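Lab notebook: predicted structure, single chain.

Context: the supervisor wants predicted structures on file for every construct in the current expression panel, including those that have not yet been purified. This is the next one on the list. No modifications to the sequence; it matches the entry in the shared construct table.
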Amino acid sequence: MQLAFILLLLFIFALADAFIYVQIKRRAERSIHDLDRKKEELLAQHKALDEEVNELRREHTRLQGRYNLLKQQKRPECQPIKQNSSLTPEDILLQEELITSEQLEKAQSYIQRNHSPLSLLDALILLNIIDLETANYVKTKHEPRG
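Prediction complete. Output recorded below exactly as produced.
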């Protein structure tokens, strides 16, 4: 009789232990699911912020180019670049600080990588490094007056 009672108690404890284990496992799985969902949300936010940062960088570069262009146009006492065809568009862009050498290399690399027939100015526009207004300004500086 005592043996049956002891076995009954062991059985009850085993059932209680199994119930507690199942509850703990469910909570853990729910927590893991919640954390995975939060992780996905954070990754999506991170991607959106990366895109926003890249857009702001492009906008900054464009505005910096326009600023440099306006600064050059409004300060004639600055050493003006002679208008002749011996200066390349790259020289003009770099001398007037409309682009950096890294941006120039990026455009040249793009042209080479893609075996592109684009001119350097077209590649710079395509990559949002300069705008059309800046490209036209450089073309007028590059072309000799007739």
